[in-house]
Amino acid sequence: MANHDNEDFFSENDDHRATQRGSRKRGQRRSERSGQGSGDQSSGDQSSGDQSSETKCFAAAIRLLAGREYSVNELATKLERRFSPDAVVNVVTEMQSQGYLCNTRYGEAFCRSRVARGYGPVFIARELAQNGLDAELIDELLQPHEDRWLEYAVAQVEKKTSKAQSRGALFNHGYEYNDESEHAQAPGFEEPDSADQRREAWQREQKERGRLARFLARRGFSGAVASRAIKIGLSGFEQDDD
Q: How far apart are CA 205 and CA 111, in angstroms?
């Protein structure tokens, strides 16, 4: 009898342990299914979030381009302040394929703008390079202006200083107006300038030339172009290079 009771006791314990193991397995399977479902939902939410981010990024890019042209690098840099790098890459690539974004078109607009504001090729090339344009494209963009940089530089000299005052500083032997006779008197009839006056005139000339040379350098003109432009702008005529 005692043996029979012990057998029943062990049998009940075995059944209980089996039930516990089955419950644990089912619980594990539910947890796994729950985890898989959560992962799928998380993936879907992330995909939806990426699409929403790209949509907002695209709209922001359109708003920027509505104001002016941008280079690819310049637009991407602005967008990356607000959006993820992946969204920016996708949007910039799409805008290039659709023709909204073009480095050549941006460069042409940039050149027109800077030339109109009196800047030279050195300045313009540096700015274009900083905005991501390659050297070959920059050369192509500057080529149409190649024969006019001197003209542009002379215009800046004349704008910066009065030609009449500059001539007076450089050539202190011009015609002097006589209010009484109402005739201009030729320099040959005047007393010759003293050595001190000539020295002062030369010093004024050098100071003025140096000021204009620094100004043109800041504007992005080469030294050779600046030198010729200063001669032309201050004297009123183009001197021979011989």
A: 33
Average pLDDT, the chain: 76
- Distance CA(147)–CA(57), nearest Å, equals 42
Asked if 124 contacts 219 with a C-beta cutoff of 8 angstroms, the reply is: no
- Which residues contact residue 59 at a Cβ distance below 8 angstroms, ignoring those fewer than 6 apart? none
- Distance, in Å, from the CA atom of 238 to the CA atom of 208, rounded to the nearest integer, reads 18
Segments forming the whole domain that contains residue 115:
105-235
Backbone φ, ψ for residue 131 (5° rounding): -95, 15
184 bridge partner residues: 177
Domain assignment present for residue 87? The answer is: no
Cα(82)–Cα(57) distance, integer angstroms: 8
Is 199 part of a structural domain of the chain? yes
Number of domains present in the structure of the chain: 1
Tell whether the torsion through CA atoms of 13, 14, 17 and 19 is positive or negative: negative
pLDDT at position 26 is: 41
Residue type, 205: E
Name residue 178's beta-bridge partners: 183
> Is 214 within the bounds of a domain?
yes
**Residue 140, in any domain of the structure:** yes
Threshold 0.70, pTM exceeds:
no
How confident is residue 43, by pLDDT bands cut at 50, 70 and 90?
low
* 104-125 exposure pattern, b = at least 16 Cβ within 10 A, e = fewer: eebbeebbeebbeebbbbbbbb
| Helix axes of 2-67 and 85-97: crossing angle, nearest 10 degrees | 50
